[in-house]
TrEMBL record:
InterPro entries: YhjD-like
The protein's name: Uncharacterized protein
Highest rank taxon of the organism: Bacteria
UniProt xrefs under Pfam families: YhjD
Species of origin: Paenibacillus phoenicis
Annotated Basic and acidic residues bias: 127-136
Upper classification of the organism: Bacteria, Bacillati, Bacillota, Bacilli, Bacillales
Region feature (Disordered): 122-143
Amino acid sequence: MAVPGIKEEELALIKSALLLGFLQKVFQRDARILEQSGLLKSPEAYVELIRNGERRAALVLSEIHGNLRERNIAIERIHQDENGIQAEYRCRGYRGKMRILWAGLQQEVSSRMRAYLNGTAQAAGSSRRERMEKGNLKAHLLP
């Protein structure tokens, strides 16, 4: 559902918040699997690397949430299904919905995961928006 007067930059913030929330869950799951698998003799180094990536993602997500609050935007509900992630959000009193399909999400999560694990993730801003526009992350506004 299109929200009257919502800007592309604001939609990009919502998409980034959804992406980073999903990425945090992936990092948490992967670290837990490594810790519990018993397959590695020294999983600590790998788990620490993943936890550091998770912390970097959390820092950027916190900044994005601050930007959303400044713009009077709130993500009210997130739902996952076989097609992707759907979010219901409120923007300056209007309600909207956005869906991100798994194909685009997985590609972008993989790219961002590498950046956060390498410690090269950039803070919120135009550079992130440019990367999103170049990537295959497509959000669909729902009626």
